[in-house]
Write a structure and sequence with these properties.
The chain is an all-alpha fold and 572 residues long. It has 21 helices and no strands. The two termini are 29 Å apart. This is Major facilitator superfamily (MFS) profile domain-containing protein.
């Protein structure tokens, strides 16, 4: 998900300087009247780890009903007697997170909350930047509200402020490709939080335009690392039967961050120097993320993978993995059961690793299963960006004005309402993705996107006397996007890549997302002038139909499958 700066939620880090410049602002309000700090002060500072598929295996070779019952009872009472790994030929219900399977599928919800919450804060801070930047750009360029002598920004400078985090995210994606597998998911997210903190503080305290842009770039690098590390860590530490829900819930946090950014912006928009608070408010949230991630354990699966790669001692990392697994799953399992699960997972990783010929370098991404995964994951995040999200929300102001929402205060209120609607529809996807599956949500959502785009084209061509058509199409687009491309693209990206190239594959997918976002950013204004709104929506409607065909033909269903099953059954 990416972001558009404006009065309305979006998924592209684009902005319209002209639209921002035209937005009216209220009279300045003294900060002291509200009893808060002065403008110069800042606020206080997808892998999935799993045991291999397993099945009940009666070890007593007896015959008759009584013997079968005895075997079943024995298996139930002793987990070691009822599991075996794929290497031993076992079959089982799917499992995903560490410890999800060998001794049953029990897990403690209380032990899942924190390993999800703190990585998800990385997504919330990404979304917050989306929402806050819209109001910050309005405040920053106002002679009355900016509180600076350099408020008269050119369209290029304003575009750099709005899109600076996008360019930083591109750099962060490249950085993640090189160092993420070395650092591990936990340290990658701690680093992302540190960059969030430094970027927010530098931006909030910036005495001039140059330092403002430096702060935006630092924050953007944090976005690039967080959007790579968060889905991986969540997937590694979540049971497979709720893996889709938790990774999709991260998208809900992004939307919640957008809404928070809009709310903070609406509170600070008429305060002198309010843009400093809008940008700086991210720092205390990032501090919470940093402390939380620092106190979480490393991924057990990453520890075992490093041992298999020969980068660490097998015995030492097995011990660390057991400790991490105990922390992640709670203490209701015995050390022996945890050790068995780690042994099973280690065998699974060794088997998958042995099937791949060499280290996952850049060229291996374009061969065999890795290439198929890259086409699926990269295709989804590419279509996510080029199916018109920036364009639809760029025209949201004019669409709503025709329906009677003309004043700036009305627009601000409507932007919050649209944010709440996005939150609601994302919640639908989050809580249905593991029931309905990935493909039905994608197909239905993209179909809705195409219908909404063609309705908008018809509105600008022949139905302009029926504004309710445009408003309905706008809401249909927002809702359809939030149940399909919004959460499902990142979920699929975290699941689809093979073991050895998973970290680098997700890095390339994130890079594709932000790169296509930048392309849309630069191409939109010329297309707008050359084609006009009706033809733009026809173009994006056609692209949406193409993306629908792509999903139907290329994107598999991964619901309920372990990562190894996805690799062996869907990619081979």
């Amino acid at each position: 998900m990416a972001a558009k700066v404006g009065l309305f939620p979006s998924s592209s880090l684009t902005t319209s300087p002209h639209a921002i410049a035209a937005a009216p602002t209220n009279a300045p309000r003294p900060r002291g009247a509200r009893g808060l700090a002065s403008p110069g002060r800042s606020a206080a500072a997808m892998d999935a780890f799993h045991v291999s598929s397993q099945a009940a295996e009666p070890l007593l070779r007896t015959t008759g009903a009584a013997a079968a019952a005895a075997a079943a009872a024995t298996a139930t009472s002793n987990p070691r007697l009822r599991v075996r790994t794929h290497a031993q030929g076992g079959e089982a219900p799917s499992s995903g997170g560490a410890g999800d399977g060998a001794a049953g599928k029990e897990f403690s919800w209380s032990s899942i909350i924190l390993p999800f919450l703190f990585p998800a804060l990385g997504g919330l801070l990404f979304g917050y930047d989306i929402g806050a930047t819209s109001g910050a750009c309005i405040s920053l360029q106002s002679a009355e509200l900016s509180g600076t002598t350099w408020f008269s920004l050119s369209s290029i400078q304003l575009g750099l402020v709005a899109s600076g985090s996008l360019y930083g995210a591109l750099g962060g994606s490249l950085l993640a490709y090189r160092v993420a597998d070395f650092l591990g998911r936990r340290i990658e997210l701690v680093t992302a939080a540190a960059l969030y903190i430094s970027g927010a503080l530098v931006t909030g305290f910036a005495p001039d335009f140059v330092l403002l842009i430096i702060g935006r770039l630092l924050y953007g690098i944090g976005i690039g690392l967080a959007m790579h590390g968060a889905p991986l860590y969540i997937a590694e530490t979540s049971p497979s039967r709720i893996r889709g829900t938790l990774i999709s819930l991260k998208e809900l946090f992004i939307v919640l961050g957008i809404l928070t950014g809009y709310l903070v912006g609406s509170l600070e928009i008429d305060v002198v120097g309010g843009w400093r608070y809008m940008f700086g408010f991210g720092a205390p949230l990032a501090v919470i993320m940093a402390i939380g991630m620092w106190n979480l354990p490393p991924s057990p699966r990453w520890l075992l993978l490093r041992a298999v790669q020969g980068k660490a001692s097998v015995e030492d990392n097995k011990k660390k993995a057991i400790q991490a697994l105990r922390s992640l799953r709670g203490r209701f399992r015995s050390d022996r059961v945890l050790a068995d699960e780690i042994d099973d997972t280690l065998l699974s990783i060794k088997a998958a690793y042995a099937e791949q010929e060499s280290e996952g370098n850049i060229w291996k991404m374009f061969e065999g299963a890795s290439l198929k995964a890259l086409i699926i994951g990269g295709g989804l995040v590419l279509f996510q960006q080029i199916t018109g999200q920036p364009s639809v929300l760029y025209y949201a102001t004019s669409i709503l004005q025709t329906a009677g929402f003309a004043a700036a205060s009305d627009a601000a209120k409507v932007s919050i309402l649209i944010g709440l609607f996005k939150l609601l529809m994302t919640g639908v996807a989050v809580f249905k993705v593991d029931d309905l599956g990935r493909r039905p949500l994608l197909i239905g959502g993209i179909g809705g996107i195409a219908v909404s785009l063609f309705l908008l084209a018809a509105y600008y061509k022949i139905l302009n006397s029926f504004p309710f058509v445009a408003v309905g199409a706008l809401l249909l687009y927002v809702g359809s996007y939030q149940v399909s491309f919004g959460p499902i693209s990142w979920l699929m990206v975290s699941e689809i890549f093979p073991l050895r190239t998973r970290g680098r594959g997700i890095s390339l997918a994130v890079l594709t997302n932000f790169g296509s976002n930048a392309l849309v950013t630069f191409a939109f204004s010329p297309l707008q002038e050359f084609l006009g709104p009706a033809n733009i929506f026809l173009l994006f409607g056609a692209i949406s139909l193409l993306s629908l065909v792509f999903v139907i033909l290329k994107v598999p269903e991964t619901k309920g499958l372990t990562l190894e099953e996805i690799e062996s059954k869907l990619l081979k």
